[in-house]
């Protein structure tokens, strides 16, 4: 009893620890549900470690899986996994807030602080409004795309049984909008590599899920102001996020063409090559869907994909990685230093020095985590360095793309990837704050000193 009280006191000591604790409990809970016999196909078997791996991958919206989803899980198991993806994509506190609001529960200051921590907000104001707007947007878009994809699968002849076509439409919509990358086709989107309508719909869902909730809220405000003829100005965060996202997308497309022009794209047509480049450039930034086996690409392309997965999507989105704004602020800080400027400026505003410091800290810690995970798996498994590094970047960036080694990994390697996916889901800042108690102002400040570096 004393141990449980200690654990409870430790978790409740800070909102960050409580959020991380909730995610851990939900991960274990979903693992148990997926492990139970009613979630499995008749004759299928699943170890608890693999169930925990799938649960972590689902709640972190990664998509890596040591087993075939469609061959292992029954209909209840697939629906449980879909719920896992939905909670991971929206966030535990967003789902909890929706339940509280429906029950008429007034959101307290402590609960707002938990929402703020889970959604990586800067202040308490507007968090409930953010939850309402995002939930409505997600549910409406999911319903529309589920109906479109489900009926298209049915009438195009992919799935001649109506309910199976609708199930495919439902699951792939949830998986795409949450940037999860799970599939129940058994081969990701490879069966649709020449169906550009399906690919386009998936890219729209992936882009929406990777934008980030504050951007969605800004776009909603913009549409409302346009309808009412009011003036509206996008926030600096939205501008930086959208510009960085588009630049990374374009850089990925150009890089794909450069590296694969005399390799994978040799015998491809213009439209076919364009879709391979566009889809993979977007998918590697967190979605994890594949229209072709990753082993078909050159080492240069795979290395670029690792970089894109490491950067990931935007903050407050369903994706992971170090995030687009972190990468953008680092680049801006380097350019400012190279130009002899003391501060980082963008769109007529100066970025807080603390924010610049955090960006580099996130990058350094993330790099250490990826390198350590790669090193540990290299110790236990005999796959090539590229295969392992690709898998680790995919886990940290919560992307889900793989070179096909996930199912053959040792138990130790799976545990390493579980930890990497969990950290990628909660974020580097949250991960570091777990180890810190409530901050107190420094009572003593020491004289400043300078040290030679570089």
TrEMBL record:
It comes from the Bacteria. Keywords: Cell membrane, Ion transport, Membrane, Transmembrane, Transmembrane helix, Transport. The chain crosses the membrane at residues 20-38, 78-103, 134-154, 196-219, 240-259, 320-340, 360-379, 388-409, 415-435. InterPro entries: Cat_transpt. It is a multi-pass membrane protein. It is found in: Cell membrane. This is Ktr system potassium uptake protein D.
